[in-house]
Design the sequence.
């Protein structure tokens, strides 16, 4: 059974700091991994999607890496801003079957202080 | 391109009452998902539709939850009767291709349900 864990559960940093969010998964047989952002009371916004054959994806100040063999992904945020404050969720899509079910971690709540 | 639409945004009911949520996916998206997100946890899939057929409902509490996607477009999720533990945000998502394992899911704003 696939399990996804995110550490830390919460993180508070001063503005301008570079930071790394961690995601680990127990079954390395995945199709892809997706990072989402969730603002309070809102739905999920997709940030980056990494296919299983890829090692990393970049979008602006965000960089996500994937190491399938070790069951790990990291989301790197450069030069953090108060507007980055939100909950960040990672999710993996399993390898077998025709279902596109995402298995989510519990999220990391980030606070960036001005 | 319009996103995934959901209504209502908020709902408060008493236990043992019934409630229904509505979702309209992005136009042309064949696959539709309903997720349940309990406070402090990641979303958990309840049911997945491919067009108007059910692909996965293994985690749907079928004694009280039901969902349908008539005509393969919009969908409704119903809870009857509701329990206190059903308090959560119900998220709808959709994706484009026939092989959903490869494709990105787009989420709606969710419906926040409070059961008193």
Sequence:
């Amino acid at each position: 059974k696939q399990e996804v864990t995110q550490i830390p559960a919460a993180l508070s940093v001063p503005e301008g700091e570079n930071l790394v969010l961690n995601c680990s998964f127990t079954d390395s047989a995945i199709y892809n991994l997706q990072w989402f952002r969730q603002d309070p009371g809102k739905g999920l916004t997709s940030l980056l999607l990494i296919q299983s054959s890829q090692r990393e994806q970049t979008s602006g100040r965000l960089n996500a890496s994937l190491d399938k063999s070790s069951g790990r992904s990291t989301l790197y945020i450069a030069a953090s801003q108060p507007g980055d404050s939100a909950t960040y969720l990672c999710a993996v899509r399993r390898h077998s079957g025709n279902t596109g079910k995402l298995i989510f971690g519990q999220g990391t709540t980030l606070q960036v202080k001005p | 391109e319009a996103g995934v639409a959901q209504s209502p945004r908020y709902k408060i009911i008493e236990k043992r009452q019934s409630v229904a949520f509505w979702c309209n996916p992005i136009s042309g998206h064949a696959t539709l998902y309903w997720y349940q997100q309990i406070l402090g946890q990641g979303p958990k899939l309840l049911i997945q539709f491919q067009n108007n057929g059910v692909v996965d409902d293994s985690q749907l509490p079928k004694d009280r939850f039901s969902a349908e996607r008539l005509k393969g477009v919009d969908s409704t999720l119903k809870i009857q009767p509701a329990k206190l533990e059903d308090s959560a945000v119900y998220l709808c998502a959709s994706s484009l291709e026939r092989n959903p394992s490869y494709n990105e899911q787009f989420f709606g704003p969710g419906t926040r349900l409070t059961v008193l």
Remarks:
- The mean pLDDT of chain B is 91.
- Chain B touches chain A at residues 4, 6, 31, 33, 40-45, 48, 50, 55-56, 91, 93, 95, 99-110, 112 (CB under 8 Å).
- The two ends of chain B are 37 Å apart (CA to CA).
- Residues 20 and 78 of chain B are 4 Å apart (CA to CA).
